[in-house]
Amino acid sequence: MPMGVLSDDDFESELASYLPAQKVEIIDVVKGRGNTNEVPESLRKVIAEEAINGARSDELEKVFDVSPSSISAYKNGSTSTSSYNQPNKELKNHTNSIKDIISGKARKVLAKALDNITDDKLKDAGIVTLATVARSMSGVVKDLEPPVIEEKKENDGPSYVIYAPQFRDERTFEVIQVKE
Q1: For 62, which of 13, 47, 85, 126 is 20 to 30 Å away at the CA?
Q2: In terms of residue numbers, what domain contains 107?
Q3: How many domains does the chain have?
Q4: pLDDT profile of the chain (180 residues), mean per 10
Q5: Which of these, 69, 73, 83, lies nearest to 48 by C-alpha position?
């Protein structure tokens, strides 16, 4: 059979001559995204908000028909995993505002909890309770402090610190007379 463009009838007859006893099914292979459209920005915001608020990832996958990697990217403020380190400005602002609302509520609850920790209660508490409270409070302080950003030096080579000894005058030393 010559190579070229075939009609459907010619293709079916040729296919039947090679596989006469078997039923043949031709499946179109879809590569890439296929027929699915890009997720709209408004839907990305809803998915990110629900994920941040604690919705389960498997539920979001079913309801919105998106992949787990897309959900993770939307939570980060990105439109896809390939742009994870370069978030979408509008989506990032939305996710930050949702996180600010949640952290504001958490701060109010934290303030109420701290107000209820009195000196009398701490005096009556056991050592295990005191250690737990101390550890929890150090975590709260660490979470509320702004992150420390270290300046990157131009030269990443070794740093040398040289300490010069302090000069002392002879008169500052104690004098001991020795007989020979």
Answers
A1: 85
A2: 41-143
A3: 1
A4: 74 74 68 70 91 89 88 88 84 89 82 82 84 82 73 73 86 85
A5: 73
